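Q: For a teaching session next week I want to show students how multiple molecules come together into a single three-dimensional assembly. I've collected the sequence lines for a complex. Could you give me the predicted structure tokens for the whole thing so I can convert them for display?
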Amino acid sequence: MKLKFTAAALVGLFSLAAQAQTEVQWWHSMTSVNGEWVNDLAKDFNASQSKYKIVPTFKGTYDESMTAAVAAFRSGNAPHILQVFEVGTATMMASRSAIVPVGQVMKDAGQKFDPAAYIPAVAGYYTAPNGQMLSFPFNSSTTVFYYNKDAFKAAGLNPDTPPATWIEVAQAAAKLKASGHTCPLTIAWQSWTQLESFSAWHNVEFASKNNGFGGLDARMKVNSPLHVRHIENLSNMAKQGLFVYKGRMSTPEPSFISGECAMITTSSGFYGNVKKNAKFAFGLSTLPYYPDVAGAPQNTVIGGASLWVMAGKKAEEYKGVAEFFTYISRPEVQSASHKRTGYLPVTLESFALTEKSGFYKENPGTDVAPNQMIRKTTDKSRGIRLGNYVQIRTIEDEELEHIWAGKKTPQEGLDAIVKRGNEMLERFEKANKKS
Amino acid sequence: MEKRVVFKSRWLPWVLIAPQVFVITAFFFWPAAQALLQSVQQSDAFGTSVEWVGIENFVNLWNDETYLASFYTTAIFSLSVSIVGISLSLLMAVFVDRVVKGALIYKTLLIWPYAVAPAVAGVLWLFMFAPSVGVVSYALHAMGIEWNHLLNSTHAMTLVVMAAVWKQISYNFLFFLAGLQSIPKSLIEAAAIDGARPWRRFWTIVFPLLSPTTFFLLVINVVYAFFDTFAIIDSVTQGGPGKDTAILVYKVDYDGFKVMDLGGSAAQSVVLMVIVVALTVVQFKFVEKKVNY
Amino acid sequence: MVERRPVLTVFTHIVLILGVLVIAFPLYLTFVASTHTTQEIMQAPMPLLPGSHFFQNYMDAWNGTGAGAGSKAPVARMMMVSLISALIISLGKISISLLSAFAIVYFRFPYRNFVFWSIFVTLMLPVEVRIGPTYKVVADFGMLDSYAGLTIPLIASATATFLFRQFFLTVPEELVEAARMDGAGPMRFFKDILLPLSMTSIAALFVIQFIYGWNQYLWPLLVTTNENMYPVVIGIKRMISGGDSEMQWNVVMATAMLAMIPPALVVILMQKWFVKGLVDTEK
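A: Of course. Below is the structure for the complete assembly, covering every listed component.
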């Protein structure tokens, strides 16, 4: 009798302990196949241990989930982990008491955490100048160059040697046009590919104070002679019908898949889409550059999002967060994620592992993006850390559109970007001076 | 507008309005007051540091030339959407009212677009109008029109007006139809017996009797054009090219949602609210006089 | 119609057919897109005739087996949430607005105009600005992740009250006089005379509000974290990739078509309330 009772009590205790799982709320914006990837990561993590349970919730686009998180935070209901896009980095940092730096979380939880294991150009974006990692780089992509091999062949160009410099791009475009292509070149995410990444790729400043890493008094510098030269080239190409503007952000991408545009600069994350839906042979290459600029090519700037940890939670829950971050940093997990989604591997080890598995050989072109990032970054190429950056991106889109439409000259447009952008930066500086 | 004959009761009206008043107090006025409070503050996104800045947010608006330009853009947009939306749907409603055969099909097909989820609608418009690859752009191109709403402001404005009107046509059509249904047949028959032709009948009998509905739709359409069109513009042109389709509410929602500048967004809302309230008062004072109750 | 005018009738039909073609064209495209493969859709320009993948795509959409459905909540569950929310919102809005409009038009009480205008002004503040504070109110009431939280804040609007006010103002005075002479109280008048007269307005509003409630996206996104309480539009949105990754357009369109069925049913079912003459004899 006593034995049964004890046994029952023990069973009861065990089930209680199992139910006392600490829940960790994770709000994300991953849609479509990436949404499945997130759910699988959580599922695998939860299955690998029993103390913590990660609960991922889709909360809309990056803006929407940010709005939700802000509203929730103000009423004490914030999640533990929030996925925030890269341009929101400065906004998150400005709310210093709302977040806990990832480096801190890992340290407090006693997790082994070595920032040097992370790919410099990827992690550097989310790291403070003193080396402390602020947020965890989760889904990062970078700017690459895609081209239509079949179109190249038809135009008499060698499909296996993509243009490496902008001069070669222009030449290829001319040949494509001559062979009947109505849209030789187009550009997606123009502010990211043609201004931000362009600057880092050529090791020139996008904004002063090392692109904002050095202080809130950073100001825009995109009207430098090199930038003007580049935009002028593009503008001339537009006038000749060699470059056709197809919209902001990722809107131009379907034009490449449909075969209408033969060359496009856009995110490395576009790869899966092209592979599945394009009816032609295609290739990837590094972003074009100007060979006469010293220091080019350096590295490109990442895009994508990172995971931030919100403040105000219990210590036990933070331990769960730390464990989760350690889990997804494991080389085999990282490598699997990279292969599955096309997002950049975050650690050097995972990159090596992927290479060893022969993945890059089987999928030619997928190593272009990581290779562009595995360089030692300079102060000017680590990334962008500017406040009110969402607005500045829109300003860049607007002024570039004025240039492509012929309403402003490249110099005027870039000057306008600098002027309006600086107003935004001044306002941000003023609003955050006391903190 | 007054009724001559009313009911007398001290307490009944209060009971009747109580539910709605409770809901709007708790879920509109209280949050609205807090939102408006934000217009004189500046804070970081998460509200961890809040600072009183008086009218500074408003001053910033006044100094922003693109903000002032958007007044003009908004006027054009709202006028076009309201006028086109109301006329087209009135036309459709009157015609559907006329026919006997196929009325059900017409009505269903004309109301159904309202059911398209806004998220999907935006995507559809992109599919149709994407320069070169969109179905409609392709057709226009074949007719010799170089459709490019990415760089041509007129094309862009036409496109967003069309998209906004499209979304509203079903709505207007439905209410016009309801209004038409409640016009007594006897009146129309009497006029026909008197020898009035359809065109005359419409303008002397139907339209005046429809005026309460028309007034309702006019006010609602203006409000719609001013406030509810952010999603369409965001998915089709994002306010571009440049800022040529960035109407006032676009900037409000953009600043509130994407930039997380809650103070600036709230300040703009105050301005917007003042404008629309003024417009509505004008409509009530001057246009309602012409409405036949 | 009153008399026969064949030319006018033909003309009417032509205009209507044109109108339907233009207005229902996007709907047609959605349907066409839902019957092809994604690859076919991405070729420029998109095909205009239905393809051969109808069953495949709709099966995928319904079972959530198409890549990217991703959500833990199956489509059926989401449709249920949408259905319940839409019903609560439309019925709730109509009931409280009927009562308020009745009070405003048929009674004299102090601050009457003020009440009307304060109800009216709720249309004039953009949602985005007040959505944060509204969330806080809902959270404080403990209504997160519940049908109450999903629906009650949305019942606050003024469109219905305004519409009913317009309609009530057109009801002839004689009817009220007759009711009072018969000794009927206000609620009797409301129930037996006003309500039946208002049927077409109520029907129109029901259609509109139901669809409005059905298509809610942003508010549910904020107010619910439990994915079991997600309405169907969120499910659609999460299949639409915001970035560059591949998207199964065909399954997205199929899901969208499925999601449009209940609203379409409501539209069709409500048609009988629009039958002419329902309101005729009383006047």
